[in-house]
Specification:
alpha/beta, Rossmann fold, 9-stranded mixed beta sheet, 11 strands, 32% helix, 14% strand
Length: 408
């Protein structure tokens, strides 16, 4: 290893220890390092705050599908600690005229507002719950309405090959999820000088958004302790989708990380995404949650395999349950073997997502209460490499996983 690499790693390590020590000393008081914003959810409209903002020549916005509202907004909430949660919303995905136009499998507009968020008290959003590891933290909520798992930066023309849209032969869908993330990141960097801890997470499509956004957030705040947890986003996908359809999004990827220099290529898996990012940021913690039989992830895997028969989607997906289940386990086990600063939690059953769910406080099928597993992740910044310093943050998986079907 080059001497410059050792120096870089030592510098990052010392800065991390300094940030962690300051964090422990100041974890219960807010200061000048974070903004003075209301302690209730507040709407931010990018077109008003940053009217000239563009990324990749595109302005923030939603999918602009037929009859859809293209306006984009995000939400922020003040806290009492110098810590920040950045949450990416889920809501499916689309990559073809079939599921972008005809039978949509994604959220097409911003479907939340500040009133709904202020009344939502579940999972990590139950900020009055003493069992919430993020009680008192600042929050940023990134809505999802672009069909590209927050990764896209392009407008894609989809042909109306079934002739179902009156008066046109095609329709342009705005896959601008990463554009939206970039305007949110600008707001965060404009308003936060130095959050002591930043927890990046998201559910379903938002779980993919979280892991791909993590490097950009870490680069923006190099002296913060930055964590990432992907909720129900394990990346078991069909080969045709991987080889061709996914390129309809113009995926943005942190090309400064070894393994990503050539952008997104067909051979990159979610295992590669986590392993390469974990190796580049060895003093950060990365993690994933899934149930052993997540019905929604299995459903989307089946849609990828049988895209042009939407009538079969609602019933046919159970035929690939074992395939999805086995591939998911392979991914998390191999990722854990290759990345010592990565952990997984596999819960029993088939429910989908946990971070915004009541199960956040009740899930313990892997032998430990999930909320306490997350707390162990963020409270012990030194438990990265395993061994005596790892504390309670270990790889966990259910023993009785409530298998719905027998698998070989």
């Amino acid at each position: 290893m080059k001497r410059s690499t050792y120096i870089k790693m030592a510098t990052i390590f010392l800065a991390t220890i300094l940030a962690a020590s300051i964090s422990f000393a100041n974890d219960n008081c807010s200061g000048f390092l974070v903004p003075d914003i209301p302690g209730v959810w507040t709407k931010i409209i990018p077109s008003e705050v940053y009217p000239d903002f563009e990324y990749n020549g595109l302005k923030p916005g939603c999918a602009a599908c037929p009859g859809c509202n293209p306006e984009y907004s995000f939400f922020v909430k003040g806290g009492v600690k110098d810590n920040l949660v950045i949450y990416f919303e889920g809501g499916g995905a689309c990559w073809d005229s079939m599921n972008c136009l005809y039978v949509p499998t994604y959220t097409q507009e911003v479907n939340v507002d500040e009133d709904a968020l202020n009344n939502y008290k579940s999972g990590i959003f139950d900020t009055d719950n003493p069992g919430n590891p993020f009680k008192g933290w600042y929050f940023v909520f990134i809505p999802y309405c672009t069909g590209d798992i927050h990764w896209g930066a392009t407008d894609t023309v989809y042909q109306d090959y079934l002739d179902q849209i009156p008066g046109v032969d095609s329709w342009t869908i705005h896959h601008r999820g990463f554009v939206n993330f970039q305007v949110v990141l600008k707001w965060v960097t404009d308003n936060f000088l130095w959050p002591r801890k930043i927890f990046v997470t998201g559910s379903s499509a938002g779980g993919y958004g979280a892991i791909m956004a993590f490097p950009y957030i870490k680069q923006a705040f190099p002296f913060s302790m930055v964590y990432v947890l992907g909720d129900a986003a394990n990346g078991v996908i069909g080969q045709d989708f991987q080889n061709s359809s996914i390129y309809n999004w113009n995926i943005q990827i942190p090309t400064w990380i070894p393994g990503f220099e050539n952008g997104y290529t067909p051979d990159i898996t979610m295992e590669d995404v986590y392993v390469d990012i974990a190796r580049y940021y060895p003093f950060s913690k990365l993690s994933q949650f899934s149930t052993a039989w997540d019905w929604n992830q299995t459903f989307f895997y089946y849609v990828m395999l049988d895209l042009y028969n939407p009538g079969d989607w609602q019933t046919g997906w159970t035929s690939v349950w074992c395939d999805w289940h086995n591939q998911m386990y392979t991914y998390v086990h191999e990722t854990a073997d290759k990345a010592p600063n990565y952990r997984y939690y596999i819960g029993a059953g088939q429910y989908h997502t946990i971070m915004g769910s009541p199960q956040f406080y009740t899930e313990k099928s892997a032998g430990e209460l999930y909320s306490e597993w997350v707390r162990a992740m963020v409270r012990n910044p030194f438990g990265v490499f395993g061994g005596p310093l790892q504390g309670k943050w270990k790889n966990l998986e259910c023993k009785d996983c409530q298998d719905p079907v027998p698998c070989q």
